[in-house]
Fold Nitroreductase family protein.
Amino acid sequence: MPPTLIFFFVMSDTTNVLPTEFPILPQLTQRRSPRAYTSQPVSAETLQQLFTAAGSAASCFGEQPWRFIVGSQASSPEAYQKILGTLAEFNQAWVKKAPVLALSLAKTTFSHDGNPNSWGRHDVGQAVATLAIQAAELGVQVHQMAGFSAEAACAAFQVPAEYEVVSVFTIGYPGEVEALPEPLQQRELAPRTRKPLAEFMFEGGWPQPEEERYDQAPV
């Protein structure tokens, strides 16, 4: 008998889609940083897809300096609580409903010669960005955070000295915005905007923009 084909249909997250000047991939416009999550677990298969996507990112010398520590409320609750404990109080307040937390780390030296890898954090950022795009394709969302203690994370997981923690991020299915406190609801629904292309794409040389705008929505 011929093999059975099984198709999975995933609902895209169309909340607060980013308007753009020029057409881009829909996954990029749908990628956002929610604070409202459902309690629906993220399956092991989905996590494997996400981190496989992260591993496909480009890196200097093909070093792939990224490392990830993952804590799932469903399957690795102790690790989840350790990561949660590294977060700033503000972040802890809304993160608790996210089903998965992860630490991204960068190896600070090249494996082939032991020299410092000045591009490691850049490459980790590329890996997490790729993961986030894959997540949007699967109806999952990621919220990356800088509000955490790298020292606490290193202590909690006994991170070797040649690695540094870059960020913490959530992984989960977006939930009802109304479940958040009012101030966070406003952040969640604030119009998503980005600087116009002319303010950051400089073909041919370095211009002197009349002004820089830093009042844009951050997500």
About this structure: The chain is about 30% helix and 15% strand. Helices lie at 26-30, 44-55, 77-86, 89-95, 120-137, 150-157, 182-189. Confidence is low (pLDDT under 50) at residues 4-9. The two ends are 49 Å apart (CA to CA).
